[in-house]
Amino acid sequence: MGFSDLLAILGAVGLAAMLDVAVRPAQKQAFSAWLGRLASRAGKIGYGGSAFLDKVFGKPVFSLKAVPRYALISLCSIALSYTFAVLSSPPHVQPLITMFPDGMTALSATILAICFIAAIIGDIFSYAQTRLFVRTIDRSRNSVVTAGLVPADIIVSLAIFFTTFTIARLLCVLAVLSVEPTQKLTHTETFAPGLLTAALAEAEVEIGSDAPPISRFAILIANGKTEAQLRLVSQDVRRNLARQFSRPDALETVSYSSKRHCPAGREALLAGAEATKNSQDLFRSVMAEQAQRRPITVDVDRIVGQMGTAFYAAVGRAAEDQCLLEITEIKASQTAAAFIGSAGPFNALNAAFERTLFDAYSVVGFKLAPYVSFDPYSSAPAYAASLKTQVQNSFLGAFPIDTDRAMLSQYFDDEIAAPEGKLNVPFSPMVASALTTSAFLILYLLSLGIAGLRASAVALMQKVAPAFDTERAVFTTLTVAVLAALISLGTVVWLSQALWRLLLGY
């Protein structure tokens, strides 16, 4: 304890003494009597939190009087928390706080309204359950029950909010997809038909009408130039993929496209390298398939090496803006709406719940300090990735999964682009609003505890100094009790830190 702390204690006691002098005796007597009854286990006002809440909201926890007041308190709590965040956050955080950074649209306003309604509905149930907890505490007047219900109230309040916000998140994702129907999950493969043609020719691979699937696919890519030939490539991809699924309708929402083009510029090098590698792998698969039908006399590794050498030679010859390597691009795609629909409602909700828990951890896990917002646009790829994982797993891993659905979710491995748009839903203020009644419950219990401490302090003073008039020094005795509790708490914290340093040896 430093000198400044000592001055603060003396100042608090002095201020309390001034109040004892300034306040009228009748008012002090009434306040002292109220504190006495509040601390008394048998008093009429002791444990009167439920009676106070019944006066404000009415006795039924759900009624036409209570529910609108719950909603109003919830909205005011969100607004106050959001205002505090705006006023207290540094400049670099402000872009995360502004709700409509790109301007308000009908869709963004609708999404924001959905989230606010979900938060308010969650708060209505949360406030109702807190009232039930307060009634239980008042009836039991048991410290063990109280100690258990305080954390239970916090957990239940957050659980209710997370549940309602999970539903809202899913609705927001569906709302975004309703105006962004082009959002797709994709799987893309690229090949170098020129390199593949040369390799197949040198290996003297002959393809007849009974050609095995991998060899037929390679020849189709090598020969695919016209739109009709490329359409055959797409059909062959679908046919080969369908063999891996047990249900014939597993791929009914998947579309395929093939194109032959020659990228230039910065993307040409990466695209060419990937196409070369895929062509080398495909050629090896073709030769392995051919080896099952006839003896292979050519040096496969030498031809594969020649394919790589040809690519790097093309890199050395091509100018920056010239075609480096002609490639065939094959793309399978499924709309995001079709993917969510095929995943089923439970997986869709589980994915939304997982993303809500992630946002919640970002807030609750760091002492409610960080400001976290929910953007249904930028978070769409993360939601899709979570939904893929949900589809591939069952509860506890103890139940069978839909293998076709799981395989298809793994098949689409391209990065998903976020829809265009920006909206910052104030998630952190909504979490704070969900904990409003928990804060009331804690303050209510603190008031009971302070009243009890004051009663203990008065009893101790009457034993130590019988001449001291505690009824005239109401505020002084109350201040001394509070200061004693704070000093005790500070001592415990100091001892904990000292023990921690001692254990760690520094």
Give the helix level as a range of percent: 55-70%
- H-E string: HHHHHHHEHHHEHHEHHEHHEHHH
What fraction strand?
A: 5-15%
User: Structural class, from helix and strand content?
Assistant: mainly alpha
Question: What is the CA-atom radius of gyration, in angstroms?
Answer: 35 Å
Strand order of the largest sheet: 1-3-2
Based on the structure, what is the oligomeric state of the protein chains? single chain
- By DSSP (H or I, 4+ residues per run), the number of helices equals 19
Extract low-pLDDT stretches. 41-45
> What is the mean pLDDT?
84
What is the molecular shape? Answer: elongated
Describe the structure.
The structure is a single chain. This protein is mainly alpha-helical. It has 19 helices and 5 strands. The strands form 2 sheets. The chain has a 3-stranded antiparallel beta sheet with strand order 1-3-2. Helix 1 runs antiparallel to helix 19 and helix 7 packs antiparallel against helix 18. The protein is elongated and about 115 Å long. The two termini are 21 Å apart. About 1% of the residues have low confidence.
Give the topology, please.
Blueprint: H1 3-22, H2 25-39, H3 49-57, H4 66-88, H5 94-97, H6 106-140, H7 143-179, E1 184-191, H8 193-202, H9 213-223, H10 227-242, E2 255-261, H11 266-291, H12 300-317, E3 327-335, H13 336-343, H14 345-364, E4 373-374, H15 380-391, H16 403-411, E5 425-426, H17 427-434, H18 436-464, H19 474-504
Antiparallel strand pairs: 1-3, 2-3, 4-5
Helix pairs in contact: 1-19, 2-18, 3-6, 4-6, 4-17, 6-7, 6-17, 6-18, 7-14, 7-18, 8-9, 8-11, 8-12, 9-10, 11-12, 14-15, 18-19
